[in-house]
Design a protein that fits this description.
With 101 residues, this protein is of the alpha+beta class. It has one domain. It is built from two helices and three strands. Strand 1 and strand 2 form a beta hairpin. The longest helix has 44 residues.
Length: 101
Amino acid sequence: MITNEELTAMQEVIDAATPGPWTSNLANRGNIIRNGETNVLYIYSGTDDSGHAIIRIKDIDLITNARTDWPRCITALEEAYEENAALHARVAELENEFTET
């Protein structure tokens, strides 16, 4: 389980980053991740000495999409935790009612 403190730390990292959404644009021997007109990150996507790609386009897609996907995941997880806590409270109420009768 991810703790509330861990969720808070994740959110702080997100909040400190350049606002999204980010997009990815191929550039000469690399890829530029942008927020509108602002360059956020340049990723060299050439090959190493053995001809293997240093970074794959799918990896760049992950980085680009993480800027908007992670905040949504954190929000969904926080909502699920709240719903879970409410359900546990309701079960406890029902157990108390059942044991009182």
